[in-house]
């Protein structure tokens, strides 16, 4: 309510024709007819005043429409900028992981080069010893023809060994050229990443200019937008500095590897296994990229579902208004879910809160134990018992009325999204995990689905919008960041509700 009042003040400041500033102009323009109005009859005065009242109401409607259009433009601009910055941050994280993997691979190859170099030194020593033996055999060749034949055979073997070493040296040179080609490919990728970074900076500067232009027309949002801009600038600068430092380290490692590869002259028989390993790693990387694309597509679909659900919740914001089709879909999902699944209890708890079940109905449904409530406060008389039950029931009804249906449904959606994320990160979900939905009496502000996800560090804020609006922040800023997957029951409920709306 305070932000709406500030927005109206800003609109009145931008449009000097609205509000009290209009009355002086009207009084100035009507100064000459005002004297004639004093001489006119009461009916004419009333008609004149009604016309002025109608004109004033029309101007008020015009200013109200302009204010609503301005708020809609600001909301769309904030959402588009948040999506662009999230995509850029995800791209930088992915490139950072790729560079780390390549750096680890380069380190392994350097160790293998050291091993091969040691083997080359050993082979040179053996060749020197064989040459000495050959000289000794030549000095003794005149003693016996049989010795000459044996020395000739050994010489052929040594020549074959030297030829084999020469072939291995050529193979090593070919491998070194292939490594140089790999280095050039990595340098091209680094240059492409730098170009993308420059494009992201240009887009960021363009968005900042748009924010400045919008801030001039909406002074009430200046503080929130400045905080958002500063946070995103710091995150982007930090990510850019880390990426540049890693790129410099990778370039230094590649230069060292190039010098060592140029001086290496030994056999590479064991590098065939490394080639097959590289092919398998490339295949695995391609499969993981496909999985990431699929997860991103599913995250976009789930985000659309959540946006549609939140739009309906904002449209039907009454506490006592229950979507019959939505409750039906949740009940059908509850019946089709396996009995050992922990989501059945959570679905039943959500239905009990939506339908405002009392203690007896919750005991029949198995949500609480029989006689669990009212035991500690049992009075000696039946009148005291009835009074305590009445007070407890009235307190529960008041709490249920104060807790809106939209907040409960948003918590249910966030809980399902967190459980969908669990199998992709840490295996099967634990029924006793702290990511389960809160109790029906718990306020929405005391429970956060991202508090235990493990992805947000103290130095990195969630890549979403500012928390000025809880519903809009949940719908567009937090959930798509983690590439979440909603459960099958939630997707079925949302899909059935959407089909019912279309029909």
UniProtKB/TrEMBL annotation:
Residues 1-61, 368-401, 417-503 are annotated as: Disordered. It is found in: Golgi apparatus. InterPro entries: GRAB, GRIP_dom. This is GRIP domain-containing protein. Its main location: Golgi. GO terms for cellular component: Golgi apparatus. One of its GO terms (biological process) is endoplasmic reticulum to Golgi vesicle-mediated transport. Residues 20-36, 418-434, 444-473 have a biased composition (Low complexity). One of its GO terms (molecular function) is small GTPase binding. Transmembrane segments: none annotated. It comes from the Eukaryota. Keywords: Coiled coil, Golgi apparatus. Pfam families: GRAB. PANTHER family: MYOSIN HEAVY CHAIN - RELATED, THYROID RECEPTOR-INTERACTING PROTEIN 11. Residues 42-51, 380-393 have a biased composition (Basic and acidic residues). It comes from Papiliotrema laurentii. Gene3D superfamilies: 1.20.5.1700. The keyword Transcription does not apply.
